[in-house]
Description:
Layout: H1 12-15, H2 32-43, E1 48-52, E2 61-67, E3 72-78, E4 84-88, E5 109-111, E6 115-116, E7 123-124, E8 130-132, E9 151-157, E10 160-164, H3 173-182, E11 194-202, H4 206-212, H5 219-222, H6 229-238, E12 244-248, E13 251-256, H7 271-276, E14 306-311, E15 315-320, E16 324-334, E17 337-346, H8 352-383, H9 398-423
Antiparallel strand pairs: 1-10, 2-3, 2-5, 3-4, 4-9, 6-7, 7-8, 9-10, 11-17, 12-13, 13-14, 14-15, 15-16, 16-17
Helix pairs in contact: 2-9
Bound molecules: FE2/S2 (inorganic) cluster and fe (ii) ion.
Fe (ii) ion (FE2) is lined by residues 212, 218-219, 222-223, 368, 372.
Amino acid sequence: MARFPKPPEGSWTQHYPDLGTEPVSYEDCANPEFYELERKAIFRRAWLNVGRVEQLPRKGSYFTKELKVVNTSIIVVRNNAGEVKAFHNICRHRGNKLVWNELPQEETSGFCKQFTCKYHAWRYGLDGNLTFVQQEEEFFDLDKSRYGLVPVHCDVWEGFIFVNFAREPEQSLREFLGPMITALEGYPFGKLTSRWYYRSEVKANWKLYMDAFQEFYHAPILHANQTPTKFAKAAAEAGFEAPHYRIDGPHRLVSTSGVRNWELDSESRKRVEEICRSGLFGPWDQPDLGPMPDGVNPAKCDPWGLDSFQLFPNFTILIWSQGWYLTYHYWPTSYNSHIFEGTLYFAPPRSPRERIAQELAAATFKEYALQDANTLEATQSMIESGVIDDFLLCDQEVLIRHLHKETAAWVDDYRRSTAEVAAR
Ligand code: FES
Ligand SMILES: [Fe+2]
C-alpha cells in the first residue's frame, strides 16, 4: 500500500494549529440542550442542500422535504419561468400541510399546475401566489395578493438545490461554499443521472455519522469482513493513511489513493466483482467524462481513488476516480437520532452489463454504510453514559476534530449574538 509524505511542517493536524491535538469532548453528541442550540445556530443559518435539479425535470415538477431539525416541511418546485423555488409547506387558510400523499409525515414528489389544499381547496400557483379561495365572498376584506405561500431562501449551485432558513442569509450561497468547493464547478454532475437512493433512520447524533465518513482509517478494521480474507489481512496490517486532507472555512476534504480492484489477484477480490466488473469503488469500466475541473483531486494525488468533500453542516459530495459521485445527507431528528440519505449518481447505463455494474456498486455501498450505522448506535449509547468525555483523535482523524470545533464555533457565535441582543 502506497505511503505518502505528510505536509512539510509535521502532521496534518499540526498543519491547522487552531485545531490543537488534545483529546476532544463528545458532549456535543449527547446533550439535548446543545442540540437545541445547533438547530438555531447552524441549521437555521447555514445553506442546506435539499436535492438536485434533475428531481425537477420540468415546469410544475416538485418535491417535498421534511426537515424536523428546523421544524418544518418545504415544497421545492420548478415554476413556469423554469426557476427553482422553495416554500414552507403550509396552507395560509388554517394551516393544513399543503402537499402530501397518503401519510402526512412522508415526503412526496410529482408534477402539478398548481397546489390545491386538501382541506378547503385553496389553490396556489407555482410561484406560491394564492389564486383561488373557496367561497371567497364569505371572507372579510381578503386581499389574496397578501396570502401567498411563505417563501424559503433558495439557490442552485451546479445543479444542487440549497435552502436557507435565516431571515436574511449572512452570505450568498457561493460565498458560503468558498473556493475549495466552487473549484468543483464544471464537474459533469448534470450528466450523471442514473440515481440510486438509500434512506435510513440511525439512532446516533448526526455528527457521529459524519465522523464515520470523514476518516477511512476504520475501514480495514470495521469493514474487514466485506473483503476476502487475504485482502482484509493485508489491509489491516498496512493500516490506512490518506494522501491529502484540506480544510477551507467550515468545509473539509479528504482524498484517498483508493483500491484498484481490477489489478488485484483473484484471491483478493470477490467472484461477484469479477463477474459484474464492479465493487465498492464503482464500475471498473469508466465512462469518459472529459477533463476534470481543478477542484477535483486538488493535491494531484497519484494514485487517486476519491475525494470526499464535507460541506458544513450536513452534506457530503464524494467524487470517485471511476467517473461517478455520491452524496450523503445527515438530517438530525433529535440529539441522538438522524435520517441518513446516501445517493449514488452514475452515467446512464448503455447496456445491461453497465446497469448491473452500477447495481453491484450501489448494493456494496449500502452494505458498508449499514455496517457503519450499526456501529454508531453502539457508540451513541455509550457516549450517553457520560463515563468518559475526553476522546483521542489521531492524525487521520483531523477532519473530525474540525467538524466538532466548527460546530462549537457556530453555537458560540449564536450564543454571543443572542446575548448581545438581550443586553441591548
Ligand atoms: S386549511 Fe387549506 S384551504 Fe383550509
Ligand atoms: Fe465505514
